[in-house]
Amino acid sequence: MLETLHRIVQSVNAASDFREALEIIVERVAEATEGDVCSVYLLEGDGEHLRLMATRGLNVDAVGQVRLPLTEGLVGLVAQREESINLNDADRHPRFRYFPETGEERFHSFLGVPVIHYQSRLGVLVVQRQARERFTDAEVAFLVTMAAQLAGVMAHARVRGELTDGAEVARGGPLGLDGIGGASGLAIGEGHVMTGAANLESIPDRRVRDADAEAAAFAAALTAAREDIRALAARMEGQVPAAEQQLFDVYLQMLDGDSLRERVHAHIRDGHWAPFAVRLTIAEHSRRFEAMDDAYLRERASDLRDVGRRLLTRLLALEEQDQTLPEQTILVGEEVSASQLVEIPTDRLAGVVSAGGSANSHIAILARALGVPAVMGVRELPVHGLHGRALIVDGYRGRVEVDPAPALRDEYQRLVEEEAALTAELAEIAGEPAQTPDGHCINLYVNTGLAAEIERALEIGCAGVGLHRTEFPFMISTRFPGESEQVEDYRAVLQAFAPLPVTLRTLDIGGDKPLPYFPTHDDNPFLGWRGVRMTLDHPEIFLTQLRAMLRASAGLDNLRVMFPMITRVEEADQAAALVRRARDELTEEGVETAAPAVGAMVEVPAAVYQAESLARRLDFLSIGSNDLAQYLLAVDRNNSRVASIYDELHPAVLRAVAEVAAAGRRLDTPVTICGSMAGEPAVAPLLLAMGMEGLSMSSGRLLRVKRVLRTIPYSTARSMLDAVLVCETPGEVRRLINAEMDRYGLGGLIRAGR
């Protein structure tokens, strides 16, 4: 059964679209179980009805026509109970319902299993036989396993817009989608889906406005692919055996063949986008090769797929060159990447929508840094059905509106204008201190990493930079930046803010920030080789960066160096020693620099409980609340499936933050916080009351936080903190602090005024 399952999964993954995948499943499962019938029913968007979507054994005309509520029939009972039902006399069961159009009256045995994807009910997989005999335990186990595989296929199809909701989007029907607010704010714009790498299986379909233009693009890609292969063949001549050299001739024959070209043109005429037409054609031809008896010919299927990938690479390159970004671009993706985000000019990027991720995934943090609203973890997101559609992004509620009705669009337009008015009003306090009405002050720093953030931070005023993410130039490069390149980057930020302090965090890669040219291959990257663990293991990388930081600070003397992911005091000692060594080396070379303040990020539980030991060794501590919450709650902050239990207002997180602040006060060591918690206006009074020296946040949040601190007295903040620290749930904490915000007329700073 395991080998059978493996073969079915392979075939399903090679299917050109969701409908074909369903057909493969019902055919192969019926064969594997020796069932007379295999059918798939999908749950409709209302969550109350199931529809027959594929069958082998029932009347094929019933596909798409048979629809039943969950309260009726055995199939409905399976979905309702969310458990398997195995019967040898299904027609005698009280919930049995006969559908004449299916012709199922002659089938007596029934095995139905629910299709569930991470607690989300998607449908039912059914096998039936004429004989009155129960299915065996092995057959039940096989069908349950197959249903789990089908759940992944269905969830992926929904994301790709191949299910009903995606079709509604393609027709232009209004649709509301719920996710998680990743960056607050509102945006109205047009969806833009970046195609990404040339992966045959992941190429989506798009509506075609001009079939002739698609055919011309394909012809150009065909010519370019031929030239690529000829050039590759010439370069490899004499370097590989003659038999291997012939492979290039095979590739050229495939590209020159009428069959491939004619089938792609036929699919384009049927209304498919050229890249998708290539995907369909390659899938069709590959299946024919794989079905052949001759082993040599079967191997040609992989060659054909390679040819297809080359064509797609060329087609997608042409697509990127020809496309014009909307004035208000809403970047949409299954997993939006940092490189995709920075490819959109900041004057056109209006918002971000991602099927994956959570409120504190790397992309959400970047969106906050850029001041654009983001909605993450939209599980039902029909990604490729949203390209070119009118979208509204509500980062406060975690809501995406697709092709909104005029009345809804007008309402959001009013809210956008209100936000603009609030932003203009907040600008009036840009030069004022972050001081409570009863005289308590705190420093408000900014987090930076992109050039756009520096300019914005200087406009609104701040106490300096509490966190500069140095890894961004490493992430968008194809190699490690050299020392001089790094000096240039660091000098720009140090000089821009001088004489204010600038905290440069040393390289923090790993986890959700891998480098393509320096793979780590960790099974669990968040518990693996990341942050200071990696840099201490590679002093040649670490020392280059430290030397660049120190050289960049010459004559400015506003540098602070911060080490990420400190879990042991020995790591802090070793990292600080390398800073001294780098400075000594530069002194020997005639480069005089001031000794920078050095500190550590507190972002793992071990550092919380050794905060005093770290404070004795270092000049400052800075709490990274995003990772601290992740490790305390054992929740991957990038995983949308568990995003609902990731919460920085969890009492355990708040108490840990308070404990670190108390340790700093006892040793007179400044403690700041640079995670997303620092930029939450409603949380700012709590952090002030804990005794933080400063809060570091994205520049777009600073004036909102300042308004709260200038409005709520320190005495009230202390009372809020006392009440919060005895709360038992995040919900209690949120209700308490939101009530105080409303009492002081500050509710509009944390949610849209609806």
TrEMBL record:
GO terms for cellular component: cytoplasm. One of its GO terms (molecular function) is phosphoenolpyruvate-protein phosphotransferase activity. Keywords: Cytoplasm, Kinase, Magnesium, Metal-binding, Phosphotransferase system, Sugar transport, Transferase, Transport. Its EC number is 2.7.3.9. It catalyses: L-histidyl-[protein] + phosphoenolpyruvate = N(pros)-phospho-L-histidyl-[protein] + pyruvate. It holds the Pfam family PEP-utilizers_C. Its main location: cytoplasm. GO terms for biological process: phosphoenolpyruvate-dependent sugar phosphotransferase system. Its cofactor is Mg(2+). It is found in: Cytoplasm. Residues 17-164 form the GAF domain. Belongs to the PEP-utilizing enzyme family. This is phosphoenolpyruvate--protein phosphotransferase. The lineage of its organism: Bacteria, Pseudomonadati, Pseudomonadota, Gammaproteobacteria, Chromatiales.
